[in-house]
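Researcher: Please predict.
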Amino acid sequence: MLAENLAASAVESGRLASIDDLDRAIVTLAARINAASHDLLVLIRRFDERGGWLRWGFDNCSDWLHWRCDLSISAAREKVRVAHALKTLPAISVAFAKGELSYSKVRALTRVADGRNEDALLDFALHTTAARVEERCRELRCGTEASTGDALRAHARRALSLRRDPAHGTVTFTVELPLETAELIEKALDRATEATVSSDPEFAEESWGAQRADALVAMATDYLNGDRRTSAGTSDNYQVVVHLDQHTLSGGKGRSGLPIESVRRIACDSERVVLVEDEEGEPLSVGRKTRIVPAAIKRALWARDGGCRFPGCGRRRFVDAQHPALVGWWRDEPVELAVALRPTPPAGSRGRLPHRERLP
């Protein structure tokens, strides 16, 4: 009660006797807000279960909440989702009601928690930050086959647009890419930035954003001047560290730094170094690096297939040699691979990921 009285006094007077008093008052008030947020979600769930939004002529509870409580539509949808998810997570719900968990943590936990992992996730969330809870839950979701839909949606949403501003003489580019593709662009920008700064030290005083803009222009200039590499697999396009549980690639459940479908797509035609770690993160062994289809095999494939062999596709442009046909390399088993020409992402996919079905 003393801390609550101090919090009330702080709100009224705007000051406290000491920093320690202020600290306790803020923490206490935050816990009360967490508990009130739990109560709000319980009310929202009951309101939705009884179809209360029908009285105002809405199609669903999210739209009613968006209008009635002045929330953004995305925030309203999340609150309705979390409200219903808490009904099946009693331990997390109790901790939330006590103010021990913030709404940010609960929102992340309800995306992956179930009866099997609820207690472990709750224990983890009670002793770490909201950011780490978000990261752990994202990894758990990426480590399941359910993340395939996330990868497909992210790939389908890729876009680039530009807006000209003649009054200021500038053009603004807006790009949206999947995480794994954005890593490729970021790596290229880093290399181009380093080369530009090292060759022109007088530009070292430029801001970081200006240096990145110059690097982008340098990349475009080199491409137009003919300094380009069009053969996939001839260089280390990706050198990305992805942490994941090995058995998730073969259909099991675990943690992954990227959606499992994205990891498979990257590993399909790229060099790979497998670093095996123990539970404490200590390296145990490092595996083989590459299984890239050589240029001679690519020429033979083109002579044999003349385009993509997937039934109903038949594309003859933007195709490359892929090898997930029988058993993917991610399973780390010595297998005989059926190699064929497949569409390459992103230029030849036209909004879809490369075919992953087995060849006939």
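Model: Strands lie at 159-165, 170-176, 275-277, 283-286, 319-322, 340-343.
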